[in-house]
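for the recovery benchmark. tokens below, seq after
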């Protein structure tokens, strides 16, 4: 299963426009996290999220929603590396969760305060 997962991670990185160096870092972090690795395997097999594992109360879907808000703001400025690239969005959700696992306070703060779009009261 690990070989299949590595090949899928490699393909996902390629589709997302990431290089071999990113793949190596991503894979090393992924196999060191049992919870996120299991989420990765589940997604690979089912093309859906199990959301069984959370970091500081946040699942992969929560991270993707937060990233989508940033994605929409970037589309408004037409400077999005994720524009029309669902593979990149998926990869970045896994990557963010891996980083969040190591420094949850930093990412929780970002998710609570950095929405990417303006709305009434955002800066109050």
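predicted aa per position
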């Amino acid at each position: 299963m690990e070989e299949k997962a590595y090949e899928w991670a490699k393909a996902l990185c390629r589709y997302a426009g990431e290089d071999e160096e990113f793949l190596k870092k991503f894979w090393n972090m992924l196999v060191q996290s049992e919870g996120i690795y299991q989420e990765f395997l589940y997604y690979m097999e089912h093309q859906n999220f199990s959301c069984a594992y959370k970091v500081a109360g946040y699942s992969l879907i929560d991270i993707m929603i937060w990233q989508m808000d940033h994605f929409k703001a970037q589309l408004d400025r037409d400077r999005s590396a994720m524009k029309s690239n669902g593979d990149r969005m998926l990869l970045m959700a896994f990557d963010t969760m891996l980083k969040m696992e190591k420094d949850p306070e930093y990412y929780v703060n970002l998710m609570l305060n950095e929405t990417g779009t303006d709305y009434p009261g955002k800066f109050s």
